[in-house]
Amino acid sequence: MNNYHKQNVVIIGGGPAGLGAALMLAKRGWKDIKVIEKRPSADYYEPDKSFSYQIDGRGQKLTDFLEITAKLADLSVPNTDFYFTIIQKDGTRKTTKLPIADSQRKTAYWLPRASFLDLLYQEIAQHWQDTIQILFNTECVEIKPHSQNLEQLEIITQSQNQEQLTFIPNLIVGCDGLNSLVRQTLHEIEGKSNLFAMQQFPSPSAGLKYKVLTLPAQFPLSAKEGDLSTSTMAYGIRSSFKGRKKAISLGLLPLKNPNQPRTANIINYPNHEIWQLSTPVEVEEFIKQAFPQLPIEKIISAEEIARFTASEGGKFPMPQYCSGLYQIFGKPENNQGTAVILLGDAVHCFPPDIGQGVNSALEDIYIFQEILQEKQDNLAAALPRYQNLRQNDIKALIRLVQISYPWQYNQDQLQKRLWSINFFLRLLLNRLFPILFSPHSFLLIQNHELSYSEILHKSNRTTQILSILGGLIILSLILMFTSSH
Asked: How far apart are CA 455 and CA 36, in angstroms?
């Protein structure tokens, strides 16, 4: 078998999954890799996408393979140094260090999404310019069977200046997110099959709306001279308002770079009062009343208030996945067809409750790499193997998102307390009887050596044992009650 098929790849989407997949294939010897990205540059600042990533051991499988984990660490705040300060409405503060439940697991690293994207882009620019070409300001507008050969797919792109380009690749990698055109195309080609239709599942955090406020680097925490925020500190700033439709918090995650602007997340139900405000004046007044402990006029500019007001923000998606992870048309290994694979949010998407969005995407790429190695880059053999190996883990991941920590956004205090009781009960029982009981799934996810399927199995087993014990206790109480009468 020749390797001509390793010389014609189009990756749709230039986010972490797209750039990570490009680097992985390049390192494996693939050539002529094109990444289609609608943003104007890798470091393009998008306020409502300026959230942070925690790259854990699962995501580091790929960064280790790409030999960039040391560079990642230099740009990041390690979870071993994660300090969190809560600032109450009266200005009182309490700082705690995030406990490390398992000292044996790999250090995880916190950094902004933009910093991680720039790290991947710089790796391409410095080492793979002859292999990887990123077409910025370019959008994939259509994917269709080739007019002269139905066993090949044709990609039509359009740049910002309306220039159209056509590609007929041997491999298409769909890294284009929840609204993936690659997945939608496969769904249309499949006809009545639901292989590429997203299956959706409920979650208490699905549908929550979020917006991001951009704050200055080292912004003042009070009117006191020199009382400034610390870049490597995480903050939770509580408001003076009460009630589900009015209470609000500002959440800030740590940054390594002390000169980089901070971003404050606001997350609430769609019917929250702040989302109903339509003018910058209303928003500014609401924020000033909500946070009397902060010198708002020194922190948030009029321009930022106006941008925040005009922004549509975003909503947490429902946990969802599709069963089909690939499709092969013709014989791509003989340059007579096109293979397609879906990675990251294009195939599994969910709220950010457990920090696995980017990590699961990077693990997708790493597992794909392992199988390409095993199958000597034969796509006809590798892609079915990848689906068989990854499919159950994706299903387990979606279930874990539903049960692990969906109440962390203060939607319901009772449910959050019940979750806390369950969490600490499992932690205690695991320490007393480690053979019988596993820790809570939220902790198990942090162990990158366990697959999502293994984590869900351990969680379900503990739930079954607790249910049996609970049933026995209730039965004993009933018997005691009846015997005493």
From this structure: 35
